[in-house]
Amino acid sequence: MAPRVPSSSLLLVGAALLLGLAAGAARASNEEGDALYALRMRLSDPNGVLQSWDPTLVNPCTWFHVTCDTASRVVRLDLGNSNVSGSIGPELSRLVNLQYLELYRNNLNGEIPKELGKLKNLISLDLYANKLTGRIPKSLSKLGSLRFIFENNSRLNGPELQGLVSYDFGC
Asked: Ranges for the Leucine-rich repeat-containing N-terminal plant-type domain (predicted)?
């Protein structure tokens, strides 16, 4: 005869499993928050504009400078004229529903990550008045929705997008 397991033990194991599943679901739904928080960690923010970016929230839709659609997916990131400095990281490519990326008039440096070419819904990429360097990634040419690239006062080479996408270099 098999030993009998008390029902209270089964309840405890069941509750632990449910909590684990719920935590996993919350973690998956916070992928966009994780991506934005990774960006925050890359940036110096002397004016505290990213102060509301709390990685413990279920999603980033309540964060300042972040706009979400009715399904709570990030569609706009507007850090324009925020006096942040640092680099743009590849983690932004995890914002798969992003339509507007506005990073103008900051002190951003380094290269534009080629991973931004994964943002299939991106309509506008505004990098005007930063200190970016390197080549404009050819991966941006794969963005069929991209209509505007605003870039000026940076040290970018290119454009590799000529004839592939409409763009405005703000010249």
From this structure: 29-69
Closest CA to 82 of 124, 50, 113: 50
How many structural domains is the chain composed of?
1
Phi first, then psi, for residue 85 (nearest 5°) are -135, 160
Domain enclosing residue 24, as ranges: 8-157
What average pLDDT does this structure show over 52-79?
Answer: 95
Q: Is residue 169 part of a domain?
A: no
Distance between CA atoms of residues 59 and 35, nearest Å: 11
Quick one: 160 exposed, middle or buried, by C-beta within 10 A (0-12, 13-18, 19+)? middle
Residues 6+ apart with CB under 8 A from 171: 152
Domain CATH for 104? 3.80.10.10
Q: What is the pLDDT of residues 2-22, one digit of tens each?
A: 566 565 655 555 555 555 544
Query: What's the mean pLDDT in 55-61?
Result: 89
Average pLDDT value for the chain = 83
User: Rounded distance, CA 98 to CA 96, Å?
Assistant: 6
Q: Is residue 69 part of a domain?
A: yes
